[in-house]
């Protein structure tokens, strides 16, 4: 058994762990490991937004375009595609890409055909909206957790392997304890969200993030379930999960949740797959922890998953949590409705800060 924090990221603690030194977890889990050459990663969420079935095929053509761009030189090392319907009734397709380093992402983004497509006037007209939410945590700013060691989803897809069994899990606060930066930093938020352009008027709007926004991707995969397990998941667990996710989507703002999307994997023709995850942006790790530890909506889900774990051996659950410097975030919304993503909580429009680009 070892620490979730890799040896090259360990340092003398000035802040204590939530668990005592003699704590031993009740079951095994693992985290993704990367070599010392990985100093930061890039997580890119590229979206197409539409409303009405008459625009569905055009929207999926847009999604396929995004995935085709992933296949160009310097594209992401891992990616997936999802669908969800938001609180305003719009359908959203998202292609999520992970890069092992910001330099490779920067070269990909700078390719003329990619930059020109995003900058084209056509993105600001027509019946579709487009968005890109790009974040780049350092190696000491993110953590992962898997109860399996193969076919790691999300950021695990660009890592080098897995740890031995880890110590920091199965107690409240273990999420924070797995983030290397938590050894010396409480990761408190500073400032707020600001926007360039007016979300209410549409067009192209850029949102500037603040230090220590937290992002969690929490996933569920029941694709290998037998028919009995499949029915068990969809009748006993998924409804509680959806209720919690809808609560955060619709009422999470007062809790510090900037955006919550409960998405389902789809193929490039729109067929749903038996995999889901939540993409949730929070003002801070503190706010995320408070909801997870104390709010009834999350506790109901937690109890449902714990009670099901031994009855459902094929269910694959996982998560990844990151925090970011303000300079390592870029959120752009083109022709999207004003409650899309982080637009909802952005402050009054300001001028674009010098030096802010999609690669920053």
TrEMBL record:
The protein's required cofactors: heme b
Keywords tagged on the record: Heme, Iron, Lyase, Metal-binding
Range of residues in the leader sequence: none
Any one GO molecular function term: metal ion binding
Annotated family: Belongs to the heme-containing dehydratase family.
Protein's UniProt name: Aldoxime dehydratase
């Amino acid at each position: 058994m070892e620490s979730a924090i890799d040896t090259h990221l360990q340092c003398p603690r000035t802040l204590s762990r939530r668990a005592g030194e003699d704590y031993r977890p009740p079951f095994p889990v693992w985290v993704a490991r990367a070599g010392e050459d990985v100093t930061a990663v890039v997580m890119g969420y590229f979206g197409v937004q539409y409303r009405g079935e008459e625009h569905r095929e055009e929207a999926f053509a847009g999604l396929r375009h995004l995935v085709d761009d992933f296949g160009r030189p310097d594209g992401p090392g891992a990616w997936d595609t999802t669908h969800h319907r938001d609180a305003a009734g719009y359908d959203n397709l998202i292609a999520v890409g992970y890069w092992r380093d910001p330099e490779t992402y920067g070269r990909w983004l700078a390719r003329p055909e990619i930059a020109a497509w995003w900058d084209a006037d056509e993105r600001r007209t027509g019946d579709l909206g487009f968005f890109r939410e790009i974040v780049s945590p350092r190696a000491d700013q993110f953590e992962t957790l898997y109860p399996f060691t193969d076919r790691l989803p999300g950021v695990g897809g660009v890592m080098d392997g897995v740890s031995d069994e880890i110590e920091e899990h199965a107690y409240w606060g273990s999420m924070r304890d797995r983030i290397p930066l938590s050894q010396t930093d409480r990761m408190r938020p500073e400032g707020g969200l600001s926007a360039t352009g007016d979300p209410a008027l549409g067009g192209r709007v850029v949102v500037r993030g603040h230090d220590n926004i937290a992002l969690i991707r929490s996933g569920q995969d029941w694709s290998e379930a037998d028919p009995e397990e499949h029915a068990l998941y969809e009748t006993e667990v998924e409804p509680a999960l959806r209720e919690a996710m809808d609560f955060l989507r619709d009422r999470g703002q007062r809790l510090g949740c900037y955006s919550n999307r409960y998405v389902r994997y789809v193929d490039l023709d729109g067929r749903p797959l038996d995999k889901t995850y939540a993409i949730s942006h929070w003002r801070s790790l503190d706010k995320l922890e408070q909801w997870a530890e104390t709010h009834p909506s999350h506790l109901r889900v937690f109890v449902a998953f714990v009670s099901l774990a031994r009855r459902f051996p094929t269910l694959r659950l996982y998560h990844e949590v990151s925090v970011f410097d303000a300079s390592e975030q870029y959120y752009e919304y083109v022709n999207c409705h004003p409650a899309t993503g982080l637009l909802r909580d952005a402050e009054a429009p300001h001028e674009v800060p010098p030096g802010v680009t999609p690669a920053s």
